[in-house]
Amino acid sequence: MTDSASHGAIVKHDRHEDLPPPKSEVGVYGWIYHNLLYPWYNAVLTLIGGTVAVWAIWGIVEYIFVGAVWVGDGPEACTAQDGAIIHACWVFIDARFNQFIYGPFYPEAYRWRIDYSFLLLVLVAAPLFLKQKWIDRGIGLGLAGIATAFSLAAYGWGPATIIALMMFAPYGLAHARLGTVLPRSASNAAMGFGIRLAVIAAAGFVGHYLGRAILGGPETFALGWIAAFLAFGLITLDKAAVKSWIVFLLVFVYPFAAYFLWVGDGFGLDYIETAKWGGLFLTLVVAGTGIAASLPIGILFALGRRSDMPAIRAVSIGFIELWRGVPLITVLFMSSVMLPLFLPEGVNFDKLLRALIGVALFSSAYMAEVVRGGLQAIPKGQYEAAAAMGLGYWQMMRLIILPQALKLVIPGIVNTFIGLFKDTTLVLIIGLFDLLGSVQAATTDPKWVSMYVEGYVFTAFVFWIFCFSMSRYSMHIERKLHTGHKRR
């Protein structure tokens, strides 16, 4: 009886509730204790490191914010009585801000073109970030109407018409059905391809000659290409969603609109040579062109390097290894100085165009290797399954392989984009004044000769904003495309 009672007492005692863990093992206090205070030498290192960090951070904050001069009419506002500089002089950035954004040579009266072109890009791309249900409820059309009214009030009828066409067109094109009247059966594949090619060519010629009859200027060339691209889209994007048409217009139509806004020489706009471009505007043009061109070119050469055709594989390998084996500064120098020596007499290309082509080809070689890594990560069974379903090579790549491969290498792709964006500062060696070049040119002014630190801090901050934004957006894309695989 006693044993039974003691056993019951023991069982009852074993059923007590779990006690919470000690405070030194969990939470913020536990992390601080184990990482910063235990054992004793960690506490000493924490004290020393914390003191140095507080001293350094306070010095930076005091120089940039607390003791800085923000308002003034000239360098005199940043000079003390004894002639010393009072910490950071942001008056320099304020006085030369337009030069840093548009470049030192772009005519002030035409800077509205740059503002409008990037406003057009933002407004046209805005529906891409809306949910599909919001677009179905007409929010996209409402945004197009508001943007058109704002552009009309701020810029006039011409720019408002461009925004209206770019923003309302996707909703009308999404209901176009040109592709349904063309043959699609396998037996008529050759005839169907010929008819499609003829329709695209006819659209291009009609657009060109109609533009010549109405406008009669150099813009007729662009109108012909836009008409050809629209015909291509109506055939290939049959029954496509509104967002697909927005992307199509941004890729194939927006570049022509932006080019004529920046350069002029058409649609009643005065001509501005590219030698006058500069500042952050030039940085975005070089980086944007390189990014937009390097990805598709890199994908093609990555596929070519893995091709079973020896000639295509050899050309792809040669291209990739050649461009990866030379520094970008050499590519820019050769495109600017050496290339004109090999051209026929009287033939010359714009300096900026040569730089854009060099940057795009250089970046595409690195992009090809990034994409090739993603292709090699796809299991062989995916290729075999696609072949078993009867898919052709391009169908297999477009529908099965590339979507998986590109998703795997998003960090590598964005890393290449960020590197390209920072490498745009090298165009200074060929006489193009990007953001950094404009800052360096401004610091040579005798009035602001001692303000180079503020200029470099401003440049670093601007580059950090763009690079950090690209990094965060890539993480958003990764989370959006996450399919349940375990991530480390």
Write the layout of secondary structure elements.
Elements: H1 2-14, H2 27-37, H3 40-66, H4 91-95, H5 97-102, H6 111-125, H7 132-136, H8 139-155, H9 157-173, H10 189-214, H11 219-236, H12 242-252, H13 254-263, H14 279-305, H15 310-324, H16 328-342, H17 351-377, H18 380-388, H19 393-408, H20 410-423, E1 433-434, H21 435-443, H22 452-480
Helix pairs in contact: 6-9, 6-13, 8-9, 9-12, 10-11, 11-12, 14-15, 14-17, 14-20, 14-21, 15-17, 16-17, 17-19, 17-20, 18-19, 20-22, 21-22
Structure at a glance:
The protein contains 22 helices and 1 strand. The mean pLDDT is 84.
What does this structure look like?
The longest helix is centred in the last third of the chain and has 29 residues, at 452-480. With 488 residues, this protein is mostly helical. The two termini are 58 Å apart. It has a domain at 20-68. The chain contains 22 helices and 1 strand. α14 (279-305) crosses α17 and α21 runs antiparallel to α22 (452-480).
